[in-house]
TrEMBL record:
Belongs to the alpha-IPM synthase/homocitrate synthase family. LeuA type 1 subfamily. The lineage of its organism: Bacteria, Pseudomonadati, Bacteroidota, Flavobacteriia, Flavobacteriales. NCBIfam families: PRK00915.1-3 (NF002086). The keyword Amino-acid biosynthesis applies. GO terms for biological process: L-leucine biosynthetic process. This is 2-isopropylmalate synthase. Residues 6-267 form the Pyruvate carboxyltransferase domain. It comes from Confluentibacter flavum. It comes from the Bacteria. Its EC number is 2.3.3.13. Pfam families: HCS_D2 (PF22617), HMGL-like (PF00682). One of its GO terms (molecular function) is 2-isopropylmalate synthase activity. Keywords: Amino-acid biosynthesis, Branched-chain amino acid biosynthesis, Leucine biosynthesis, Manganese, Transferase. InterPro entries: 2-IPM_HCS-like, AIPM/Hcit_synth_CS, Aldolase_TIM, LeuA/HCS_post-cat, PYR_CT.
Length: 388
């Protein structure tokens, strides 16, 4: 693997599925997992096997069918969790155990009522134990975003010694600023002994709307894996959106960071996840929202019709959207009306267009969006259109 490759770790089926009311059954999970594999994700986090018999069954079933990606199961730093995850993953071609523990002061003091030294030991033992089942062990330092860097570096060193090859640095509460998160990754890259034996992974939550920005800062500062979900779904404000980080790296080639994702599948898989989970995607969602490639103001429409790139930084076909949409509203100009009319088979003269545009504006002032049927009606009722 080249050092410029950013691994895409998809956690739609684990962290993403923690959204209240969005439970998927095993069959739905299998369909999504298969699509994720074809999409080209490097790792599929299939679930948290010890959490329920249903989750165990899903992780086991996904392990059996996935051909290319690593299949991963989450655990706490608890022997039984790890044993159960290893059992669920036993059919996987490439199994990974993702174990970890909270490392911030609030986790240590209030959740575990423990000490930094005890947590460090538990982390070491969890990784050692996981290593007795699988070669590929990832460690997460929960709430790393609010963990003191020096202590975090000590935890990272200990788990590398125990055999972890991926170190997940979650901003569990979505608290960090991009500059802070980037600096944390840089600090770990520069201060953890043995870091050349492992890769750092970004796992960012979106409580302040910064998950994508933080993940990108993470890879700019040396991380080589991003943990993300389709449509950014996940608990509270969600996780880093897979489609966003992938397209940011693709659209900024000078960063010299690539993924293996087949971007033309992004729109389709976004629809699949949204429909399976019953979560509606906001229309202005970057990359996959219904309006991501729709233009409604006259100035923008005129620019896009003349040259698409004037107002679009992504070719919609690159993410699986057939074409940009010119949406007719009362803000649209003559160029957009002529363009849509032409697509419907009407070649209008300048005089006809002027006449029709006036009727169009009267109509559009009373309707949010003018559709093809409305355009037919407006044109067919125009006196000038009939006369010429
Ligand atoms: O956000 C988080 O800290 C997590 C870990 C369990 C990896 O999801
Ligand atoms: Zn998370």
């Amino acid at each position: 693997m080249s050092n410029n490759n950013v691994q895409i770790f998809d956690t739609t089926l684990r962290d993403g599925e923690q959204v209240p009311g969005c439970k998927l059954n095993t069959e739905q999970k299998l369909i999504i997992a298969e699509q994720l594999d074809i999409l080209g994700v490097d790792v599929i986090e299939a679930g948290f096997p010890v959490s329920s018999p249903g989750d165990f069954k899903s992780v086991e079933a996904i392990s059996k069918i996935i051909k290319n990606a690593t299949v991963c199961g989450l655990t706490r730093s608890v022997e039984n969790d790890i044993k159960v995850a290893a059992e669920a993953l036993k059919y996987a071609k490439r199994p990974r155990i993702h174990t970890g523990i909270g490392t911030s002061d609030s986790h240590i003091k209030y959740k575990f009522k423990s000490t930094q030294e005890d947590i460090l030991e538990r982390a070491f033992h969890a990784v050692k134990y996981a290593k007795s089942f699988v070669e590929d062990v990832e460690f997460y330092a929960e709430d790393a975003g609010r963990t003191d860097n020096e202590y975090l570096a000590r935890v990272c060193e200990a788990v590398i010694k125990a055999g972890a090859t991926v170190l997940n640095i979650p901003d569990t509460t979505g608290y960090c600023l991009p500059s802070e998160y980037g600096a944390k990754i840089k600090y770990l890259k520069e201060n953890v002994k043995g870091i050349d034996k492992a890769i750092l992974s970004c796992h960012c939550h979106n409580d302040l709307g910064l998950a994508t920005a933080n993940s990108i800062e993470g890879v700019i500062n040396g991380a080589r894996q991003i943990e993300c979900t389709i449509n950014g779904i996940g608990e509270r404000a969600g996780n880093t959106a897979l489609e966003e980080v992938v397209m940011i790296l693709k659209q900024h080639p000078y960063l010299n960071l690539d993924t293996r994702i087949k971007t033309e599948m992004l729109y389709g898989i976004s629809q699949l996840v949204s429909e399976s989970m019953g979560i509606y995607t906001q229309p202005n969602k970057a990359i996959v929202g219904a309006n991501a490639f729709a233009h409604s103001s006259g100035i923008h429409q005129d620019g896009v019709i003349k040259k698409r790139e004037t107002y679009e930084i992504i070719d919609p076909k690159d993410v699986g959207v057939t074409e940009s949409a010119i949406v007719l509203t009362a803000r649209s100009g003559r160029a957009a009306l002529a363009y849509r009319a032409k697509n419907l088979g009407y070649e209008l003269t300048k005089l006809q267009l002027d006449d029709i545009y006036t009727s169009f504006l009267d109509f559009a002032d009373n309707k949010k969006q003018v559709d093809d049927d409305d355009i037919h009606q407006i044109i067919e009722h125009s006196k000038l259109y009939k006369e010429i």
